[in-house]
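Side project, low priority. Logging it here so it doesn't get lost.
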Amino acid sequence: MKSNKKGFTLLELLVCMVIVSILSIIAISMFTKCIDKTYTAMVKHDLGESYRFAQMCYNDGLEEIDEWSDLEERGLRTKPSIKLNIENGFENTLMIIGWHEDNVDTVFQVDHSGHISRR
């Protein structure tokens, strides 16, 4: 009688599943790192833009920025997912903080000299 063995053994299938799961874990971790870097870049960009916009407002004669709405009323637009807050609105002590709504653990700030740093 001929033995006709077709297909894979259970061990071969398990080895393939382990390899695929390891590769997917590596891919997911790399993907989340890329997302975090994107969030960071978006926040830094909007912080820089808001700082430059605030400097233009100071040059136009605005003495103090009390709330974020002061800049929005003058035309500043940021991404909806980026949250920015003004801590000190005077020109020589300007402090703006920002974070991405999906990554609230990473907060950045821009100071009165335009330097962006992690808080």
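Brief comment: The mean pLDDT is 90.
Revisit when time allows.
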